[in-house]
Amino acid sequence: MNSRLVNIYRFLLERYGKQGWWPLIQHRRQNPLVKESDRGYHPENYDLPSCHDEIYEICLGAILTQNTGWTQVEVALNNLFQLNNLKPDLMQKAEIEVIKEAIKPAGYFNQKAKKIKIFTEYFVGLGLGCDKIPTRDELLSIWGVGPETADSMLLYAFKVPTFVVDAYTMRIFTNLNFIRENATYNEVKRLFEENLPKDLVIYQEYHALIVEHSKRFYRRGSDYRNCPIYQKRIKDEI
DNA sequence: AACCAGGACGTGA
DNA sequence: TCACGTCATGGT
């Protein structure tokens, strides 16, 4: 079991390359050398986020992308950037109706605006240095932050090696028969964390690669047997 | 033109 | 605990 998850990781990495998650719109804005087509992705740069506002941007992105495609989140983030440069203290002062209008393209704007407001209060409370890294339970206690959002914030914003599970992860690994149909979030999370070296880069890339792979082979309604990993498993090659 | 997207919450059993 | 409805815009 152990080496299988590692083998799948190697397979995905070789096939798709380094993913450069989490995308950051302000990093691109501030670096003319970064190509527009990169859309905020930054392969092989694991130093990001490099400042307080970038940490905050990732957290907002994690909320905005709940059950929503990233292209729509990008629009919402750019709207927010135009509003107040994605600065937490300015977001605090912003009218919630203005926030709603800005994030409308990302859907669920009533809920998400409220979530952003509540989270921003918490985030400002962490202080500018961000030396206090939130715990998972702290994040989970915030209204609007569930397990995937909390883990995404920890892994990509706060650089804590904790594995992110999402609907795609469930689909792939039930299809590959690694987990049962009704496995819980924490069961799946544990499966990965117990069978992978506890390494920030691996955790970051693995989740990103799972999303990339799933967009190609695990869309709803598609035949999961077309998945090349599934094919290799059939032939007992992985 | 239905159907889905990098979920979370509230409710009732 | 668990299953199900709700939230909402914009892609294919």
Keywords:
2 domains; single chain; DNA-binding; Endonuclease III, domain 1; Endonuclease Iii, domain 2; 0% strand; 238 residues; mainly alpha
Provide a descriptive summary of the structure in words.
With 238 residues, this protein is mainly alpha-helical. It has 2 domains: 1-20 and 163-238, Orthogonal Bundle (Endonuclease Iii, domain 2); 49-160, Endonuclease III, domain 1 (Orthogonal Bundle), CATH 1.10.340. The protein is 59% helix and 0% strand. The chain has helices at residues 2-16, 25-30, 52-64, 70-84, 88-93, 96-103, 109-125, 136-140, 147-157, 167-175, 185-195, 200-217, 228-234. Helix 3 (52-64) packs across helix 4 and helix 3 (52-64) packs antiparallel against helix 7 (109-125). It is globular and about 60 Å long. The model has no long low-confidence stretch (mean pLDDT 95).
